[in-house]
Amino acid sequence: MPNTAPETSNNVKLTAFDRKLLSALEVDGRASIATLARKVGASPGTVRYRLLRLEREGAIAGYPVVINPAKFGYCYFKLYANFRGDSPQDKLMFLNWLKARQCVTWAARLDGTFNVGVSIFAPTANDAQAQIDHILARWGKNISACKKVVNLYAVYLAPRLFGTSEGTRKFAYQSVSSNETPLTLDDESKRVLYHLSLTPRAPISELALRTGLTSEVVVSRIKKLRNEGVLVGVTLRINSPRVNQYHYKLLLHLRNALPSNVQRIISFLCELPYVTYVVRTMGDWDVEFDIEVASPEAFRRLAETLSDKFSDAIDRYDSLYVYEVAKYQLYPLVPPRG
Predict the structure, then answer these.
(1) What is the mean pLDDT of residues 78-101?
(2) What are 149's strand-pairing partners?
(3) Is residue 206 included in any domain, yes or no?
(4) Cβ distance 63 to 235 under 8 Å?
(5) Do 157 and 82 reside in the same domain of the chain?
(6) What is the per-residue burial (b if ≥16 Cβ within 10 Å, else e) of 17-45?
(7) Are 327 and 105 in contact (CB under 8 A)?
């Protein structure tokens, strides 16, 4: 099991107030300062100051804008692999190269069965494979043990970062189209969605400037995207090592992937404090989930509990420690110029 400890020097020491504020942002990453102040029982000035401090000191890594890609005919495909370079800089160059790829929504350095992970945004498996082929054509001599999955459906759970599951909000999405005809996003919606994903907490006036639209059009497009189920919500992502947390992924290989077994496991995970993200996958494993814990020992106990409880269904699992996220942008498509 990976056991890479977060750096302890210059880490952010979170107060009880900080945790309360971060939990509120998990539930609604776009909540206004006034709304946050009401939720945490503090003055707007205090909330603004503490939020800016948490952002400035690196405790907050970003505010993921969660979308439902199946609504407009897209999917998330994932590639996990081992990268071996001739120098320590090679992996950094690889991650920077991935970060610049428009189709990449997530790229991370890992410790465990694999040491890199990539998520690709594409409309079909053929399109995703073409992107993977491009990666391998450029970096194939450095890459081994490639494994691929497609996200079928997933759910972000909030607030979960600090062990609470009370009043959980679920940001759920599908990553494989159902029988319904996919929506066609107009250019204005694409511009709003893209710039919102870049600056999730930007006020409407700033989004209007970035998109070249009026404030009224931005508001109407956000409302339309929500009503159509394209825009699911905005949550929070922390910089785990900076706040003395450990971010792990577990990839579950089921010996019997009957729908009833999958649903039992996913339902159990959705009730566990510290579990932040659960995915039903198709490919080299069957279920994937993320968890934020205070220590490797806490992770080990949870993994053992899960294996014991579902010994009839779980064959084995791969554990991954996520120690650097180079990119996290769930809607990466650059819109046409207005």
Answers:
(1) 93
(2) 78, 283
(3) no
(4) yes
(5) yes
(6) ebbbbbbbbbbbbbbeeeebbebbebeee
(7) yes
